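ASSEMBLY PREDICTION REQUEST
Request ID: AP-0331
Submitted by: J.K., bench scientist
Number of chains: two
Total residues: 448
Priority: normal
Notes: Please return the full assembly, not individual chains.
Input sequences:
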Amino acid sequence: MSTKTISVGQDILSAAKQAAFELRADFTQRGIFIVNIVSSPGAGKTSLLEATARYWANQNRMSVLVGDLATDRDAQRLSPLAPTVQLTTGGACHLEMPLIRKGLSELGEIQTDFLFIENIGNLVCPASHDLGEHLRVVVLSTTEGDDKPGKYPKMFRTSQVLVITKSDLLPYVPFSVEAAVADARLIQPNLQSVTVCARSGDGIPEWCRLLEDAREQMLATQNA
Amino acid sequence: MSTKTISVGQDILSAAKQAAFELRADFTQRGIFIVNIVSSPGAGKTSLLEATARYWANQNRMSVLVGDLATDRDAQRLSPLAPTVQLTTGGACHLEMPLIRKGLSELGEIQTDFLFIENIGNLVCPASHDLGEHLRVVVLSTTEGDDKPGKYPKMFRTSQVLVITKSDLLPYVPFSVEAAVADARLIQPNLQSVTVCARSGDGIPEWCRLLEDAREQMLATQNA
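STATUS: Completed
Returned structure:
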């Protein structure tokens, strides 16, 4: 490829970084905490958001942008619980800023405390794209195996929180929570972790508290 | 982007297609059946290959190229059972022909009936890359949800076989094998399907028979 092409690529990348930076600054000022949720397909991102919305009910307001290659299946699940816009990439393996902006304009003038971005189910590509989030959360289900962090290092290195889902299946699968967390912390020593079961609600209060604390910290920094 | 850049992209793509075509023709002539296995992370590709190697033992010879972003964890599991080469992409989300060629040269002069390519755990990007395989097999575990085919349509549209894994967990998860297969066949009506549990061996004979039949068909076409 020519030098010219490479420089075009860099321009696009830095424009995306700039857009992410501006979104984060804007939402920080408005007191809205943005959470980018990433995982493999079927790890339980949507179920986690359903459980979060049910737990918070009237405590905290949340809105959701949910990404998929195709279908609006996830938005159909989440819409009864929170203002939700489905983003379909038409095949692309991750979300990018222009689609986030489009989703935000579809959401309209939101009054919310938390904006969740449910990324495409993919442990690789979304790792490389800052979407303006304050917190990146990687979700790993107990059925995927505790060897995954080392095999998908960038996703775990760029996340601040690890949520281990489907704890109800622990008796039936060869998965050690301790081993998974230890493997992830080899890559990202400061990774916080919480283990949940979205179906039973186990661990959901701890997960929600972690989010509330993170938002409080953002507000405190903002007002400092 | 300039017209020039686009044409370079097309050249690379058609070179990759040509390389895949040549590999398939070469291996067909040598009687080696190539299977490209794709799935989400942790769906059980490696466990399926372990069970396949154990079941076949002295019946069929198999070799494996196993892809990961990082680590040689999968090759460590498979090497005791079959000649295996680990391919690490260093972050790339799918395997491509140059790495396949490198892996084959590392395998050396293989005498084998089946060559398995275990792709990167990713339900999106590997769909777009022909690796010279005779058969593309998409693996979906019962813990991922029966709504996944419609959400990741290209992967299911470009596959010929669907293997549903972790059937031992069916009593504990909201997953209907019939619904998953029906959803996949909306996209790819000719998709064959088989349900297995690699840990117990349930369904492994049917899976292996399916592979043997497919190879027989290739040999018959070759000798026609």
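REVIEWER COMMENTS: Residues 67 and 87 of chain B are 5 Å apart (CA to CA).
SIGN-OFF: pending second reviewer
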